[in-house]
Write a structure and sequence with these properties.
By secondary structure, the protein is of the alpha/beta class. The chain has helices spanning 16-26, 38-48, 65-79, 103-130, 153-173, 191-204, 208-216, 227-238, and strands at 6-10, 30-35, 55-59, 84-87, 134-139, 178-185, 249-252.
Amino acid sequence: MLQGKTVMVSGVGPGLGGQVARLALRDGARVVLGARSEQRLREQAEQLDPSGERVLAHSLDITQAESCERFVEAARQRFGGVDALVEVAALDALFGDLSTTAEEDWRRALEVNVIGTLRLARAVVPILEQRGGGAIVLIGSQSYRLPPRNPQLAYASSKGALMSAMFHLATELGPRGIRVNTVVPTWMWGPPVQSYVKWQAKKRGIGEEEVKAEISGRMALREIPADADVAEAVIFLCSERARMITGQALQVDAGERLG
């Protein structure tokens, strides 16, 4: 679906970002990997494409405008342009409710998840325009309207703000041929959730399968989506098969929240 396209991915690691990059390569794209950890980037790049012909790894800190601009320029110099940007980079390890969330956590959540995401989007728009348009895919969280058991008020609020921003971006950038959509996952069976399941099982003295069953039992399909399942939806929205889709939130939740 992405033959001949160049896709940029922020927040590339062993989870969703890495899966998006892997599937983009599978479907024919050239991929630009971005993350703060240069060691992680090198490891991911070597695993994804040992030849280095279709992958470029470049350090990225979305809290810094200069870093975002260098990331985009590196993609332009290496591959001649960009067709899609997938924004996975986020700060999610923030827990607390109204009474327990520190003010600094509110600021960090908004700085990374909203301002940082939009900062990178702003940097990529001119180069997308040079190709006649393209796609920006944001990663949301169902926590913005379905509060989790462990309160994440700052994180959830930032993702709600990003959802609002998507509607504005779709309207603003649509006349330039740029589509903006959001993929909204539920629990994703990858390293973070696997660690959570192990922790809960040990803490409560029960089996890991029982913890998984508690989570998947709220889903119509009775299965926790894998990182790759969410990545498949992202790839679709990057492709020309979604050329008339913009300003939409696509839930990948195995039917946890119907409608």
